[in-house]
Specification:
By secondary structure, this protein is mainly α. It is built from 6 helices and no strands. It has 2 domains: 79 residues; 58 residues, no CATH class. The longest helix is centred in the C-terminal third of the chain and has 18 residues.
């Protein structure tokens, strides 16, 4: 299977999932043992794109439809189209915004987003940092609070 066919099939599956994200049940639940048996993740798939796409189909079938109106969670909800586009571009470029040299556009976008959020929150001389998630953000906040408490 060539790269163009792989991308076409992948995008077709993603589009199909996205189109049905608000329909039916928000989860096709299976208990862990049954799901593990259905997925058969130990199956050898070295170079087998058909097997990979079967797993993708099962992944999508048994994933929570976070964009479904019946799904409510305190931590996240469904993805919007701009965020999906951003995720795809991020995955295709495979860069990290850790340095300007390695990711000039991502670095400038991160600075712009931080400045915008600081402005919205009313911090004229503020600073910020992007984190990989809420747990990491909470840990950084606790460390900063600890350091502030120790300094005073």
């Amino acid at each position: 299977m060539n790269e163009e066919a792989i991308f076409q099939r992948l995008l077709a599956l993603a589009e199909q999932y996205h189109a049905g994200r608000k329909q039916g049940k928000f989860l096709d639940y299976l208990d862990p043992e049954t799901l593990a048996e259905e997925l058969d993740l130990k199956k050898d798939a070295d170079g087998d794109w058909q097997q990979l796409f079967q797993w993708i189909g099962k992944y999508l079938q048994h994933s929570v439809k976070t964009g479904h109106p019946g799904f409510l969670n305190r931590m996240w909800s469904g993805a919007n189209l701009p965020s999906i586009v951003g995720e795809i571009i991020t995955a295709v470029t495979n860069t990290s915004a850790c340095t300007y040299e390695g990711a000039p556009v991502s670095t400038l976008m991160e600075h712009y987003m931080l400045d915008t959020m600081l402005d919205l929150a009313g911090f004229a001389e503020g600073e910020g940092q992007m984190t990989t998630g809420s747990s990491n953000g909470n840990m950084i906040a606790m460390l900063a609070a600890r350091n502030q408490a120790i300094e005073t």
